[in-house]
């Protein structure tokens, strides 16, 4: 195996590979985004297969120093209700939470660019992340879904 085919964090093999998205462009060129999980360290990985791009797997996790605070078990239902209001985000949030194993924690983080999100953390190490929608974007989606419900 080449280094591009292994986990960038620990060198483990990538398992549970699945297609997440595919796109086509006008010139007949497109690409695919694949998802996988490292069989050794259990980190969530993504691979973008497109012309001119490195085929290496990438870890979608914030650096540990960006973790701010653990989310309490009492707060998780409120977050779930918030994200379930927007269909797509509810599905992504459910998939994010399904990544947990006993003993894992959900932590808040803020990216260097100000991006807000959550990470599943196991023994101090982030394994996957969920990026929160921009408040204006979330509000716009909710308004559009409400209009569609009223006209149906």
Overall description:
This protein is α+β, with helices and mostly antiparallel strands. The chain has 2 domains: 3-59; 64-151, no CATH class. The chain is built from 3 helices and 8 strands. It has helices spanning 76-84, 87-98, 135-151; strands at residues 14-24, 30-38, 44-50, 58-59, 67-70, 105-110, 116-122, 125-131. The strands form 2 sheets. A 4-stranded antiparallel beta sheet has the order 1-2-3-4, with no helix packed on it. A 4-stranded antiparallel beta sheet has the order 5-6-7-8, covered by helices on one side. Strand 6 (105-110) and strand 7 form a beta hairpin. Helix 1 (76-84) packs antiparallel against helix 2. It is globular, with a radius of gyration of 17 Å. The mean pLDDT is 86.
Give the SSE map.
Blueprint: E1 14-24, E2 30-38, E3 44-50, E4 58-59, E5 67-70, H1 76-84, H2 87-98, E6 105-110, E7 116-122, E8 125-131, H3 135-151
Antiparallel strand pairs: 1-2, 2-3, 3-4, 5-6, 6-7, 7-8
Helix pairs in contact: 1-2
**Low-pLDDT runs:** none
Overall spatial form: globular
**SS elements, strand count:** 8
Rg result:
17 Å
SS element count, helices: 3
Query: What percentage of residues falls in helices of 4 or more residues?
Result: 25-40%
| Largest sheet strand order | 1-2-3-4
- The total tally of domains equals 2
One letter per element, helices H and strands E, the order comes to EEEEEHHEEEH
Termini separation (Å)? 53 Å
Q: Give the strand content.
A: 25-35%
Q: Based on helices, strands and strand pairing, what is the structural class? A: alpha+beta
Describe the main β-sheet briefly: 4 strands, antiparallel
How confident overall, as mean pLDDT?
86
């Amino acid at each position: 195996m080449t280094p591009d085919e292994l986990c960038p964090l620990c060198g483990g093999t990538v398992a549970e590979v699945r297609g997440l998205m595919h796109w086509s462009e006008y010139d007949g060129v497109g690409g695919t985004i694949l998802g996988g999980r490292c069989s050794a360290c259990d980190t969530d990985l993504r691979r973008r297969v497109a012309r001119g791009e490195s085929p290496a797997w990438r870890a979608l996790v914030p650096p540990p120093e960006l973790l701010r605070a653990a989310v309490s078990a009492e707060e998780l239902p409120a977050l779930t209700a918030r994200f379930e209001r927007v269909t797509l985000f509810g599905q992504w949030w459910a998939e994010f939470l399904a990544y947990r194993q006993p003993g894992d924690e959900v932590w808040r983080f803020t990216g260097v660019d100000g991006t807000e999100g959550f990470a599943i953390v196991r023994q101090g190490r982030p394994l996957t992340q969920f990026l929160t929608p921009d408040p204006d974007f979330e509000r716009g989606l909710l308004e559009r879904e409400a209009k569609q419900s009223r006209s149906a």
